[in-house]
Amino acid sequence: MPVVVLVVVVVVVVVVLVMVMVVVVVVVIGVVVVVVLEVIEIVVVVVVVVLMVVVLRVVVVVVLEVIEIVVVVVVV
């Protein structure tokens, strides 16, 4: 009888430990996924801001060139 109780206790402890390990692994995977998604979001925002700055610079240069051409044509 004591051997059966010992086996049952060992089996229960092993099952509980396995369940705890599975929960920990799922939580860790969830945290990693959230962190990766946040990093991707930050990178996308930075890339969009850089592209906007580059486009804005190009637009400013083009507008200045057009103004220069108009001024030269009007003066001449």
TrEMBL record:
Origin superkingdom: Eukaryota
UniProt KW keywords: Membrane, Transmembrane, Transmembrane helix
Bilayer-crossing regions: 6-35, 42-75
Name of the protein: Uncharacterized protein
Organism field: Petrolisthes manimaculis
